[in-house]
């Protein structure tokens, strides 16, 4: 807890998000797995430098969508993903977006530093160079003094920061984060959220962030995409115009709760559909 | 360290009990000699036991090294060829489930009674054990980890080198560890069936000559060597697979 608290900049430097050109575009993306219809004609446009959160009931196809955005899965014929305005061919997204899966997946035989440079190393960057860069970055990620530790010696929050650092060091404009704080306790999570916003403002990447926590979705985002029950589709695309920098107390502000109520209505409806489908 | 000490204490108690029982019940030496007698014979017969032990150790470790390298290489190859693996694996399991001693006469027939037949037998057994363990480790890698590396743009070789091989190391190490004892057993059994030199031969010969103390002395030497081999590989394993 306190380790994460020390990382927070008391004068958060986050500016407002730029309303830039489209970075990532989804056009009619569907996906079937045999008879299961996981995604249904998803359209979305994610602007450059934006922080977009994706929320929805469990089993709504969030992870399928993420695997498509990471290039690990192909959409059904007819749908496409565009990066920087260019439609991406099959497999074309592999190595082009920085993907962070739900579990940290740190390799126990690699030190913190060597885990952090994994993606850079795969991309062919010389180890020495990558390590030097990682060493500099370790302070920002609250890992100073732990560079040569092994993952099994770290707390859950620290492991997650190593995984995040690995994602940031994989120097790509788009980052996909799949519930990175899902396994953390509430207090650590809240600190990590503010820390992530701070880091994001410094390194300026386009972030797509999956969560099933409404507060988290609103607190972090420039925009929240709400996904509906299976087959997954975007039920709501809500801009979050709350001012930045955002402080922890924001989640009790009336503007915040108003947005939350709005999102909850859609989410409840969708969760209920999943629930009733399960009862049939 | 304390575990080693406890083991040592246990062994000492066993030996003392054995010695006492032999003396107390006056057991004749051809049924069970006293440890003191075995130790004395080991010393007096050292001129014959030493070259025999050297031969057996050379056969066992030589075959072990060949088998381990071939087993790991073959496992790496098959880990990259899913179709071939599904066809070959059942055959390998069947061959491996036949008791080793059954093949030994064939090896002697084909490769003679010299060291070659023993080295080949040991390599065969160790190779299979290490191969099966390594293949299991190489193919049972967390799919999420593979997906992560693929998302970084990693190809097959990169995934093999950075993820599959290190993930398989604990399994490979287990194969290597259990293979040490098997290597010694197979070398000795094959020697018993036909050879001119080695601990297995010494035991066989001493039985024919009704020299039971020398049988026991050879068994003692073989046990100490086997234990040392096992210990050395276990130590190496702890160093290499430090994260387990």
Explain what this protein looks like in three dimensions:
The complex is a heterodimer of chains A (280) and B (244). Chain A contains nine helices and ten strands. Chain A has 280 residues and is of the alpha/beta class. Chain A folds into two domains: 187 residues, Rossmann fold (3-Layer(aba) Sandwich); 68 residues. Chain A is globular. The N and C termini of chain A lie far apart (44 Å). Chain B is mainly α. In chain B, helix 3 packs parallel to helix 6, helix 6 packs antiparallel against helix 8 and helix 8 runs parallel beside helix 9. Chain B is elongated and about 75 Å long. At the A-B interface, helix 4 of A face helix 7 and helix 8 of B. Chain A: InterPro entries: AAA+_ATPase, ABC_transporter-like_ATP-bd, ABC_transporter_ATP-bind, P-loop_NTPase.
| CATH topology tier name of chain B | MetI-like fold
What proportion strand of chain B? under 5%
- The CATH architecture name of chain B reads Orthogonal Bundle
Strand tally of chain A, please? 10
Residue share in helix of chain B: over 70%
- What is the count of DSSP helices of chain A, taking H or I runs of 4+ residues? 9
InterPro entries (chain A): AAA+_ATPase, ABC_transporter-like_ATP-bd, ABC_transporter_ATP-bind, P-loop_NTPase
Family (chain A): Belongs to the ABC transporter superfamily.
Keywords (chain A): ATP-binding, Nucleotide-binding, Transport
Domain ABC transporter (chain A): 24-254
Which helices and strands occur, and which strands form pairs?
The complex is a heterodimer of chains A (280) and B (244).
Chain A: H1 2-5, E1 22-33, E2 36-47, E3 51-55, H2 62-69, E4 80-83, E5 86-87, E6 98-100, H3 112-116, H4 118-122, H5 127-137, H6 156-169, E7 174-178, H7 186-203, E8 206-211, H8 214-220, E9 223-227, E10 234-239, H9 254-279
Parallel strand pairs in A: 3-8, 3-9, 6-7, 7-8
Antiparallel strand pairs in A: 1-2, 1-4, 4-5, 9-10
Helix pairs in contact in A: 8-9
Chain B: H1 2-24, H2 35-44, H3 46-79, H4 82-97, H5 104-111, H6 115-139, H7 143-151, H8 156-193, H9 199-208, H10 212-240
Helix pairs in contact in B: 2-10, 3-6, 3-8, 3-9, 5-6, 6-8, 8-9, 8-10, 9-10
